[in-house]
Amino acid sequence: MTPKTNSSHERTPLIANGESSHALHDGYGISNGFFGSIKSALDTSHTPGMDSNNLAVRSLAHTRHVTKVTLLSSPVNFLLIAVPFGIIGGLAKWDPVAVFVLNFFAIIPLAAVLSFATEEISLKLGDTMGGLLNATLGNAVELIVSIIALKDGQIQVVQSSMLGSILSNLLLVMGMCFFFGGLIHRGTNGHGTEQEFSSAVAQTTCSLMTLASASLVLPAALYAVLDQSDKHDAAEKQQSILVLSRGTSVILLILYVMYLAFQLRTHSNLFDPRAKSDTEAQLTNGSSQNGHEVAGEEEEEEDEEPSLGPVAAGLVLVVVTLLVALCAEFLVGTIDKVVEKGGLSKGFIGLILIPIVGNAAEHVTAVVVAIRNKMDLAMGVAIGSSIQIAMFMTPFLVIVGWIIGRDMSLHFETFETVAFAVSILVVTYTVQDGKSNYLEGAMLLGLYIIIAVAFYSIPSDVVDPSLNHGD
């Protein structure tokens, strides 16, 4: 669509003629110019000067447009004001608690911008490659924070953050989706209704989560068996756990690649609600030709155009990734001091606080689409992210720890392993019928709060003190 270049609100001294200066001397012109400037500043579809013949003006306009679109991409981006303060505080060695809080709030909008840039690039790559990119970068913030924490020897924090990200998606996000979506679409008294989603997708993903749960239970069981024997010292026990963890991690990574092929290539119809509705439309029309016409019309209507070009989105992705790494460095560097001064355990920081940082944007997105009754999309955000963490990120971090000489393993704290296994069991029973309501959402939220309170009340040195976390 050709932008309107003759409207008064789009004229600026850089690209317009003298007519704009006359408007400034008119009372109505001042008002129109002010509100026109506000409207132009909030217009994410076009920025004045982008069509200028002057290279300098056009470059400045494109830079302004990319900045504007990026800043307005999410409601949480107002927290970007914390980014410079967090970095300055870290460099200036401010109070550790203040540095932790500032960088905690700084990473939240950076995660939202990172997610936005990833989506913009995905729109240009097509469904298959776009889905693969989302699967790889969907949890980039947690991955960056975890690698930095692993390098710093904070293995307990890494393990807790991985488990916390899974639990926050399965219990907190899915629970909020079920609860708020169920309240909005509850029907009438005595004639209640339930929201529906693909039960095949739910069963497949829950099976994978059960497998991930088994990969944590087996190292814990092996450690319990070895712990009962006096024939092996601590080093031999740790080595046995590492061998099992690294071998299991390789298998999980292979299964994750197969899952991507299953989801994005061979059985993509099971994970795409639009494809499923197209198939139903073809059967309803009784003619494959008419069905293809309907599918084509729906696809044209639902295709979304990116707000940024691939180059601009890539630059945003690089810049934000660097900022996330810098803020994460300061955040992780203050954890020990926060534990000493703030009275919080490392388990609570990793299990509750860090997942909130990385998943805030995804949480909002999932709840909004659930309220709009798009439960397949909401389930894809919640369960899909959990699969990425359990089957890709956690095994990947075990391999990274192996490479850099950190003894990261799949032997989590006993209490963490039990909490994870119980959560998987509850979620499986909740979603296996392909239907949800607000009561099921309340149950998932209740379990998450119980787990959060439990980890808040238990100090780090009380839970499995015999474990060596690389400190």
From TrEMBL:
Region spans: Disordered: 276-305
Name the chain's protein.
Vacuolar calcium ion transporter
Primary location: membrane
Might you report a single GO cellular component term? endomembrane system
Organism, per UniProt? Answer: Stachybotrys elegans
| Domain Sodium/calcium exchanger membrane region, chain residue ranges per copy | 97-264, 315-456
| Polar residues bias locations | 280-291
Topology of the protein relative to the lipid bilayer: Multi-pass membrane protein
